[in-house]
Amino acid sequence: MNQSKKKERHQRDRYQMKLFVAGDDRNSRMARNSLEQLCEIKLQGQCDLEIFDVLQDFESALQHNVLVAPTLIITSTQPPTTIIGSLDDSHEVLKALGVTEEIP
Fold it and tell me: If we measure between CA atoms, which residue out of 88, 80, 31 comes closest to residue 54?
């Protein structure tokens, strides 16, 4: 497989996500930690995660129609999927990502 096809397949297989948090709020901290662990352990680092702090960058929240933090928008699914809350249920997050089999 040539290099450009490898890169294209690699980018397509990655999980694209945007996480909106409210500073160091307890639920925002939990969501950030849960998602980072999920990306590292379950998804083996195949995540592109952007984190926006709505207290410092409210324009990004408005552009993405985010009214509550924490909010996760999974942009690699069609249509994009939105999850609100601390993301402590990793099975539900994996389901939203379209991961049907258990990843080590």
Answer: 31
